[in-house]
Amino acid sequence: MAVFSRHAVLSAAYLMTRVPPSAIRNLPNTVMQEPSQEMSPPAIAATPLIVPRPEHAISRANISENALKVLYRLKQENFQAHLVGGGVRDLLLGHEPKDFDVATDATPEQVRQVFRNCRLIGRRFRLAHVHFGREIIEVATFRGSASGDGEEKDREMESGRILRDNTYGTIAEDAVRRDFTVNALYYDIASFSLIDYADGLEDLKAGRLRLIGDPEQRYREDPVRMLRAVRFACKLGFTIDPLTEAPLFELAHLLADIAPARLFDELIKLFHSGYGLDVFEKLRQYGLFGELFPATEDCLAREDHGFPITFVSRGLANTDKRLHENKSVTPAFLFGVLLWEPVRRRFEQYLANGEAANEAMFMAAGEICSRQQSLVALPKRFSLPMREIWSLQPRLEQRDGKRPQRLVTHPRFRAAYDFLLLRAESGEADPELAAWWTRFQEASGPERISMLEGAGKRRRRRPRRRNPNAASEAGPEATAAFESSS
After folding, report:
1. CA nearest 114: which of 102, 98, 124?
2. Cβ proximity of 48 and 172 under 8 Å
3. Is 337 found in the same domain as 428?
4. Residue 403's domain spans which residues?
5. Is 232:275 a contact under the CB 8 Å cutoff?
6. Does the residue 265 lie in any domain?
7. Residue 284 CB contacts under 8 Å (≥ 6 apart), including other chains
8. CA dist., res. 288 & res. 294, Å (int)
9. pLDDT tens for the 486 residues of the chain, in order
10. Which residues touch 397 (CB under 8 Å, ≥6 apart)?
11. Which of 51, 156, 226, 441 has the smallest set of CB atoms within 10 Å of its CB?
């Protein structure tokens, strides 16, 4: 999947090279707004812009075969069937869609009657998942406006936030319920045309991200939309329209109302998509990161030994690099990076109080994890390996006797070693220690014995933070090892 470079501000002229001119040929002849120019919230047009097949570049050859099966089958059963959302947006931008979502006038129960391989999920939003092996095509019924009299509505709200919404309606009403204009584009399988109710194509040209409706109200309905705004801005390289951006600085506290398990899912989308460093910077810019990781934000706001804390930034940059190289990543390592600084500080406090290193790390990790779980739920299959990575950090400093030989056989050794390299690169751990472990892994049996004898003669000392800019100069072997191990 193509990803735009950091801090790129895409002009309309640049995006015109990404969106085929024929895709937007029928747009009204209005003056295009610059991305930084404030615009009024978009309204849903009574008559949508319809772009016929010859005038846009979406081809069925680029749509998942299973998504086409769902679309055609619904059409055969006399239901409306449209490809919608990110799949349409990404196809127009020349990206490879991650998944394909379908919108229809069939109810979830009717969809289940059509597809035997269908499961209904969700209480808040009732959805149909049609399974094709490992691929799932999500089918949503057109959402209604939940306004009007004399008609039963299945919608529950509390303090402006939507708790449940299974009110169904028309495609025009569904467009109102979409979040961003560029996600409110429909591809109709019956006519192969594009349908645009909210000037989404124009915003796509301008590289602009705008919420449909009043931004503050939409964020209050579902605060996760603030995280989605950051994710789409970073993923697409779009600028956030000023009216859509302004409430982000004021409403971060609303994230406290979101279920911790849901926030975990959103954070994986944010940080495991190849642009995690950009996401991190924007989350901090809007005050959103501090609501999700308050202990980490408190540490990042300070300096240690006169140097800024760069460990998180370097860790996220490394994760982005691995993703671009199609290498594996795990939430255990990601959250280990995000929470390490508060764990390290608490660990050192316990050491200063006379606790043994292993016990100090155990208590520090338990304390920080307990606080974090109430905000963002990290499943045990990730939290346990994360804590093992942390617990091995003090043990990596113990190079005497047979300890190194035993340590390299530990199931988490490689992840803990990579973690040590990151610490050394950011100036928080001794680069010589990281370089020693690199040589030890590569050494033969006799060479390892020699290294262990030499390590036993060294006087152990507590590490202290170093200038991160000098880390690579002081330990080029550690930096090279980090790049090769990643």
Report:
1. 102
2. yes
3. yes
4. 279-485
5. no
6. no
7. 290, 297, 300
8. 10
9. 333 332 332 233 333 333 444 444 433 333 334 444 455 556 666 689 999 999 999 999 999 999 999 999 999 999 999 999 999 999 999 999 989 999 999 999 999 999 999 999 987 788 999 999 999 999 999 988 755 444 445 555 555 554 456 688 999 999 988 999 999 999 999 999 999 999 999 999 999 999 999 999 999 999 999 999 999 999 999 999 999 999 999 999 999 999 999 999 999 999 999 999 999 999 999 999 999 999 999 999 887 765 668 899 999 999 999 999 999 999 999 999 999 999 999 999 999 999 999 999 999 999 999 999 999 999 999 999 999 999 999 999 988 888 899 999 999 999 999 999 999 999 899 999 999 999 999 888 888 888 887 665 554 455 555 555 544 444 444 444 444 444
10. 433, 460, 463
11. 156
Q: Identify whether 351 is part of a domain.
A: yes
143 belongs to a structural domain: yes
Q: Which residues pair with 208 in a beta bridge?
A: 239
Give Cβ neighbours of residue 17 (< 8 Å, ≥ 6 apart). none
Q: What is the CATH number of the domain that holds 105?
A: 3.30.460.10
Q: Is 196 a catalytic residue?
A: no
Q: Which amino acid is at 225?
A: R
Structure tokens at 102: 């379908």
CB-based contact 96:90 (threshold 8 Å): yes
**Amino acid identity, residue 81?**
A
On whether both 218 and 303 belong to a single domain, the answer is no
**Which residue blocks in 374-458 are alpha helix, DSSP H?**
380-395, 403-407, 413-425, 431-442, 445-457
Of the residues 101, 105, 174, 278, only one is catalytic, namely 101
Q: Say how far apart CA 122 and CA 114 lie, in whole Å.
A: 19
Tell whether pTM > 0.85: no
Residues 393 and 428 in one domain: yes
Q: State in Å, rounded, how far the first CA of the chain is from the last one.
A: 21
Residues 242 and 108 in one domain: yes
**String of DSSP letters for 101-145:** EEEESS-HHHHHHH-TTEEEE-SSS-EEEEEETTEEEEEEEPBP-
The domain total for the chain is 2
Instruction: Name the residue among 182, 187, 148, 181 with its Cα closest to residue 167.
Output: 148
Determine the Cα–Cα distance for residues 104 and 81; give it in Å rounded to an integer.
Answer: 5
Provide the token pair at 230: 């950051």
Let me know: does 169 contact 142? Beta carbons within 8 Å: yes
81/222 same-domain check: yes
Q: Which CATH number belongs to the domain containing residue 298 in this structure?
A: 1.10.3090.10
Catalytic residue (one of 90, 165, 174, 179): 179
Q: Is 257 a catalytic residue?
A: no
Structural domain contains residue 272:
no
Whether residue 251 is found in the same domain as residue 290: no
Same domain, 285 and 240: no
Same domain, 472 and 374: yes
**118 phi and psi, to 5 degrees?**
-115, 140
